[in-house]
Amino acid sequence: MAAGAAKRQPAQSKGSKSGLIALAQGQDLFKEGDAADCLYIIQKGQLRLYKPKGKGFVELAVLRSGEVLGEMAYFGEGADSRRSCSAAAIVKTEVIAISFSALEKALLNLNPWFRTIVTTLADRLRKTNAKVKALESNNVGGGYGSAGHYAFLKDAEIVKILTVLYLVGKSFGEKRDDGPSHTLSKKIFKFYAGDIFAISEAKYEEFFTLLKETGYLEIANDDDGLPNLMSMPDIEKVKELFMFINTQRNSKDNEKIRVSAKCETLMDHIVDTVKNKGLKGPKCNVPMTPTLNYFKERNVAIDISDLEEAREFGFVGDILVGEGNVLSVEVNIEKFDSTFSCVKFSNALRKFNDAHNK
Asked: Which residue range forms the structural domain that includes residue 300?
């Protein structure tokens, strides 16, 4: 499920009907144990297959345009076929549902010998899948923080993905002449991430969604119209994020840079004020009274005390009171430039993991 996305109901086709199904990002197509009455062909987009286990997940595979899923339920034992795993959309996805009744008619029209071959191969594949999934079910990763706290994306995995993204992007990415942007083919990234560093494809595809939402990554279509081009507007920001997360995970809890949602909102307004007023220098004074009035007029419960966490970590200095009780604050622009986007990403990551922990 995407960061901050509402929990959506599965989009199983009803009444064994064939047809097109559109899935929003993070929406389940079906869940493990659901009754199965059709198979699916992915028309466009991507789906992840997974098995829930406790508070975690066992990642099975990522499927793309042209691939088929749900067909094994047709060949399952017994009349009451059930889904053996769950399937969810990584991005906006469209699938074509083909009912088992329609599939049955198609198979009946096949040559009997060919039909026997199909059912035999399907039975062997089903038994092999059962053995593989039994082994995979013992490989759910642990969490972070307190015992039993599951995290879909753990810090160690994030550091590994970002390291590969930065190094491969610098080495093989196409750099634009007019800026720091680097464009990299997903196929190249997949080779290094999956084949060499054994990073789960389901994990890095979901992580790319988070990078897109926080401005670190853009996805574009290649010449075939497939979303296989990754563009990093500023690849050095990817390196800064890697260093920030790596430092955070090796720091004690009381040393980690964490700010509340309210503090982040205030810091966002400070950044906007600095840009709009064209303020320069390593440090500068920023008026806070207009910002506080903005929230007050909209009945938003944010006040100057919510900036305390930013002061604690050196983003801002003490609150200053001028003539007419006008409030201002000294802002460390260098600190904002190097760290604030990383802090925002960290907050987005917590929301993302919380969404996967429900």
From this structure: 261-332
